[in-house]
Write a structure and sequence with these properties.
- The longest helix has about 35 residues.
- The protein is mainly alpha-helical.
- Strand 1 and strand 2 form a beta hairpin.
- The protein has one domain.
- It contains 3 helices and 2 strands, in the order ααββα.
- The relative contact order is 0.12.
- The protein has a two-stranded antiparallel sheet.
Length: about 90
């Protein structure tokens, strides 16, 4: 019986860490999606490679940041899976 209790506790820890990671990355996604465009007029005061920063973030920057978020999620979830012994071998 203690083994099943320990297993449930490990599953709960894994689930809470997964939810925490997902929540943090979802907050980052929200900032990229909603906050950056909201301040695009102020960002347009700065230029990067000759283009206004607000335009650049809306056109290309947000897409690149989404790819970074996906990569970070995959890397951290693989590490978490290995830590809890549920990785694909």
């Amino acid at each position: 019986m203690p083994d099943s209790h320990l297993l449930r506790q490990r599953q709960r820890q894994y689930w809470f860490k997964t939810l925490g990671l997902t929540g943090v990355l979802l907050c980052a996604w929200s900032v990229i999606t909603f906050v950056v465009p909201f301040f695009s007029e102020q960002l347009n005061q700065y230029t990067v490679i000759g283009l206004p920063l607000g335009y650049l973030m809306g056109a290309q920057g947000s897409l690149l940041l989404y790819l970074v978020l996906i990569g970070v999620y995959a890397h951290l979830m693989n590490r978490l899976d290995r830590r809890f012994g549920v990785d694909e071998q």
